[in-house]
Specification:
With 261 residues, this protein is an alpha+beta fold. It contains nine helices and four strands, in the order ααββββααααααα.
Length: 261
């Protein structure tokens, strides 16, 4: 009886999750219709490849995840047999545009067993979050602006006052800040703890508002708290921290600009 119940439960999970995500991605791909070329560039970035014929363009976005290997072993105390298989999550989205407007879209998605359509759901989310359902939400650009404004408000926290003039919190560092050869003091360490907490909240807001921008941020700075930890542990000076912070900001700006070409 337990085996039958477990089998039914697995079937329910498999069909339930798979169908839900497939339906969601189906709605997303339909919601791409009507977007302008500029809107697509803004939320998905540059395509992996393009093809054109007269006034019709086809943009293809190809996203591939890491290759994983699954190993299965069976047997008894006298012999064992094993097998291995490899798989890779992927999403391919094709957008057909006429006169700069999306008039057709389709996708192919390969994901984990329970959520095969999830890779494409994540790819399309930035463009379609406000276009599905009866109540339209704000465009991605507007949500991103609100997130950045919220970050600015977070950084007015009084706990940051001991380091406010020492490191660049919500602006480009001054030359004086970049040339400061002093290390952080023990009295300033609690302010750094607060800064890390608020920085995490800010990054979460940006991730929710603009997944495409979040993806670029993670590519540019996969370890966002590394320099802050070095500063806290007095491994680098406040000047070195400010300089590296500006270098990261410059890289992010260049990466975003490259995506919109």
């Amino acid at each position: 009886m337990k085996r039958i119940y477990l089998f039914c439960l697995i079937c329910t999970v498999l069909t339930g999750c798979g169908l839900v995500h497939s339906a969601q991605v189906h709605d997303q791909i339909n919601a791409m219709n009507g977007l302008s070329k500029e809107q697509v560039l803004g939320c998905m970035g540059s395509p992996s490849s393009k093809s054109s014929e007269d006034t019709v363009d086809v943009w293809t976005y190809s996203n591939f995840g890491p290759v994983t290997t699954n190993v299965a072993v069976s047997g008894n105390q006298y012999s064992a047999h094993g097998s291995a298989s490899t798989s890779q999550e992927s999403c391919i989205v094709n957008l057909t545009m006429k006169d700069g407007i999306v008039v057709g879209a389709n996708y192919r998605s390969q994901g984990k067993l329970l959520v095969p359509s999830l890779p494409c759901y994540n790819v399309l989310y930035a463009c379609t979050a406000g276009r599905i359902g009866s109540v339209p939400s704000k465009p991605v650009a507007g949500m991103t602006k609100e997130a950045l404004t919220s970050c600015t408000e977070l950084y007015t926290d009084a706990r940051l006052d001991p380091i406010r003039d020492v490191i660049a919190i919500d602006a480009s560092p001054t030359l004086a800040q970049q040339n400061n050869s002093n290390y952080i003091t023990n009295e300033q360490r609690p302010a750094l703890d607060a800064y890390k907490e608020l920085l995490g909240q800010c990054r979460n807001k940006i991730a929710a508002a603009n997944p495409h921008l979040w993806k670029i941020m993670m590519q540019v700075q996969p370890a966002p708290y590394k320099e802050l930890t070095l500063l806290y542990n007095k491994k680098i000076t406040t000047g070195q921290f400010n300089t590296r912070k500006q270098e990261t900001a410059d890289k992010l700006q260049a990466a975003v600009a490259d995506q919109t070409k």
